[in-house]
Amino acid sequence: xxxxxxxxxxxxxxxxxxxxxxxxxxxxxxxxxxxxxxxxxxxxxxxxxxxxxxxxxxxxxxxxxxxxxxxxxxxxxxxxxxxxxxxxxxxxxxxxxxxxxxxxxxxxxxxxxxxxxxxxxxxxxxxxxxxxxxxxxxxxxxxxxxxxxxxxxxxxxxxxxxxxxxxxxxxxxxxxxxxxxxxxxxxxxxxxxxxxxxxxxxxxxxxxxxxxxxxxxxxxxxxxxxxxxxxxxxxxxxxxxxxxxxxxxxxxxxxxxxxxxxxxxxxxxxxxxxxxxxxxxxxxxxxxxxxxxxxxxxxxxxxxxxxxxxxxxxxxxxxxxxxxxxxxxxxxxxxxxxxxxxxxxxxxxxxxxxxxxxxxxxxxxxxxxxxxxxxxxxxxxxxxxxxxxxxxxxxxxxxxxxxxxxxxxxxxxxxx
Length: 416
Fold this sequence. Notes:
26% of the residues lie in helices and 25% in strands. The chain is of the alpha+beta class. The longest helix has 20 residues, at 19-38.
């Protein structure tokens, strides 16, 4: 026999019942509880949606085609899970804005970009997708709408997915909402990292200083991208440092191998990786390039390859006979200088410790540290400071077409 406990009129009561009857009643209870939870708009998902200035998502009613789990995925603020729409399918969600809404916007964070999306109010087209390819995008709303409908169309050959949906309010978008500009056509400085967060852990204050203090046109390039969560963390970190132009994301797989030769092979061969980097140099025409330690900081093969290919590109991007296709498309280009992290020759020492008003009283290194905190999936194994063994202020001049450094305290010494 089983004992069933329940409350009635403020008293704890019990019934004796058989195992079969108990399981039947318990199953009915669980089903009722699940139906109740799924009927609550934004229930537990929106418990995690707070903490963002100007975020009013919890005040709005959102209905989504799919299960309650699909709804939770776009409000969990984790960037890993996402509402998946299979290829060749179109799905929609509806948004009932709060009654006091006057002006604001939708902030869409895509795990995989759709072929297209359209935002309607009734039959009126409010906004639609463009071809810029940004995975985080902001859609301004200039007025209140009775109800909005977001239609999302997956491509013919690939699924798409919405990772996070934020609804914001205010005359201007909150500072944390990203409004990306296209990648610059021409850069003063190019930062080449093997993975998202390498530009912080090993190059320290490079991006905060040259983007905000010297205000140098900058292109940031990554060889690999593990998954949609890492991409969102990368974008969050870059935006926190004041970067406004979308980065270049390579198509090479983020995989671990025993040696460089195997990794080159997995990436299509050394020739393919060299061609990729030479094309980047020619396309964006940087004056200065900054990248990894030749020893891979702690022996990481992808870091080593990054250091190798930027050295190859520095020596060969100005030669017409090397990778003729990109030379014909963009012309040749010789960079002024290449700096590698911890390079043993022609050493220079940067200062990322000085505080600046332009950085709200922070130092470049402190701002890089705040950006790294937004790489939440990496906090267990890495932290800013752990890598003092790999001094982020120590670089060496690995290539120059403008002569040697004398002051040795700035990447742009001798560069016009």
